[in-house]
Amino acid sequence: MPAISAATTCPAVDVYHATRGRSSAGRRHRPVGRGPWSLRGGRLGRLILGFAISLTAVGCAAASGNDAAGTNHPTSGPAASAPDPAGHGTGSSQHTPIRVLASTDVYAAIARQIGGDAITVTAILDRPDADPHSFEATPRTALEVSQAALMIVNGGGYDDFTTHLLAVANPKPEVIDAVEVSGLDAAGSDVNSADFNEHVFYDLPAMAALGTRIAERLARIDPSAAGTFSRNAAAFTTALDGLQSRATAISATQPHVKAVVTEPVADYLLTAAGITDVTPHGFAQAIENETDPSVKDTAAVESLLASGSVRLLVYNVQTTGPVTDRVKAAAIAAGVPVVGVSETLPAGVPDYPSMIGAVLAAIDHALTTV
After folding, report:
1. Range 64-69 average pLDDT
2. What share of residues in the chain are helix, strand, coil (percent, to 5)?
């Protein structure tokens, strides 16, 4: 269950979490916007409209300064006599930290590196097993959106639940869309196409641009901390430049590497490392759409792994099931190294550069020791 940020003075709200069926491929996507508890037209949509609009005016959670885990975050100075519930800056260092909400903990971690102590940040999806594609919001999530000054989303159809939450939010936060910032949707790829890879958080230049954009938006909310935000963004970009150099080094020392993926989650990073994804298109698309790949596509993947032409299997640890397990077993049997990737921060990983660094280290180890 996603973390809930609400002060103890907030009214109790029942949380509904749907149980979904699963195909033999793993998770089965239940599109947001369908069913009685969906956001569009169902009971949950009406609950969000009434609950979010009526309670956000109260700003009950802001009075205690609690975050999603119930931890108190003191302000940097004496509290103002009438603090802004969303933590909008006043030009003074003595005000409530800016409230930032992110669709996943990957974006929350990036925001935290840029904003530091000047912000409090909450991730809607903050578990290693969370599934952005099939998450369904609750009224409490809608309240979190209305209480935020800034919201960071992936966009590109990845976290569509945020679109519906923002539509009913009152007031609405400023929004940063990572796909739009990346420019990848304008680089010959149609964001609405099934072929567009929306996992832009594995694209290092895109995330560097995102860090800069976050700094700019935070500075607009709190001009007094603009210098800090800018310096933090520059340090973040430097860290990503180092990761880009590591990817380039893999490409130089291990040229012409071919890989099979269970989902194209990390394909942007693979490309940076000079690794070509040769997975049959139908197989990866079926897994991502939470349907069963065809027998032909599954057999083609197993044949690639057995052929000796593929040196790596990149395995999404958050989309598993009998088919992906079978492919993983085929890779191990053929002596092909398996590198796991995820769509949220793995347990124990403190920040975004560490997450990407661990993947690059795993790739380098797989290619140099086998």
Report:
1. 37
2. 45, 10, 40
Q: State how far Cα 284 lies from the chain centre.
A: 19
Longest dimension (CA), the chain: 70
The number of angstroms, rounded, from the C-alpha of 352 to the middle of its chain's C-alpha atoms is 10
Question: Rounded CA gap, 198 and 268, in Å?
Answer: 10
Q: What is the pLDDT of residue 193?
A: 61
My answer on whether omega of the bond before 171 falls inside 30° of 0, hence cis, is: yes
CA distance linking residue 244 with residue 202, whole number of Å: 11
DSSP string computed for 138-207: -HHHHHHHHH-SEEEE--TTTTTHHHHHHHH-SSPPEEEEHHHHH-GGGSS--TTSTT----GGG-HHHH
Half-sphere exposure of 121 (CA within 13 A, CB side): 26
Q: Using CA atoms, how far apart are residues 51 and 44, in angstroms rounded to an integer?
A: 10
Neighbours of 296 (CB within 10 A): 11
Q: What is the DSSP track for 16-37?
A: ------EETTEE----TT-STT
Neighbours of 124 (CB within 10 A): 30
Percent of the chain topping pLDDT 70: 71
